[in-house]
Amino acid sequence: MEFKEGLETFGLVDLLRIHHEALEWVFRDTFEPLLASQLEATFKPSNLSEPGSNRRRHTYGDTSLTLGAVLAFATGLDRIPTVGFPTQPLLEFLHEDGPALFPTANTCSLVLRLPV
Fold first, then answer.
1. Which of 5, 49, 62, 85 has the fewest CB atoms found within 10 Å of its own CB?
2. Sheet holding 44-45, edge to edge
C-alpha cells in the first residue's frame, strides 16, 4: 500500500496503468536458462595471477552442474536479478598453497572462491 501511495505522490500510478509494458520486465520473472556469458559477465576476477605464470591456468568443472546452481552457491539466487546485484560479485582463485581445496562462497559479500 505504501509503495502505491509513494507512486501516486509523483503521479506515476496512472502512467504505469497506461504504459504498463514499459516496466513489465521489472516485475516479471523470466524462466530463461542462465547463460555462461551472463555468469562470466557477472563475476569480476579479483586475484588473477600474472599472465604466463604457472599459477594461472584454466580449470573445468563437472559438466552435470548447472550454471544456475553455481550462481545459487555463490549468491543464494539461481538467476541474475533483473535490477542486478547490490555489489559487484567477485571471483577469487585458491591455489594449492592456500587454505582450501574445495570451492567456497560468501553469499553476503557475493564472493565465489574456486580452487585451481
1. 62
2. 44-45, 90-94, 111-115, 104-106
pTM of the model: 0.52
- Tell how far CA 79 is from the center of its chain: 7
Residues 41, 48: contact at Cβ < 8 Å?
no
Within 10 angstroms of residue 7's Cβ, the number of other Cβ atoms is: 14
Q: Where are the domains of the chain?
A: 1-30, 32-115
Residue-wise pLDDT tens digits, 23-68: 777 666 666 777 888 878 888 777 666 666 656 554 444 455 678 8
Distances (CA, A) of 82 to 47, 62, 70: 27, 28, 18
How far, CA to CA in Å, does 114 sit from each of 4, 54, 66, 91?
Answer: 44, 17, 16, 8
43, 115, 27: which is closest to 85 by C-alpha?
43
CA distance 99 to 112: 15
Which secondary-structure segment (H or E) carries 27? helix 24-27
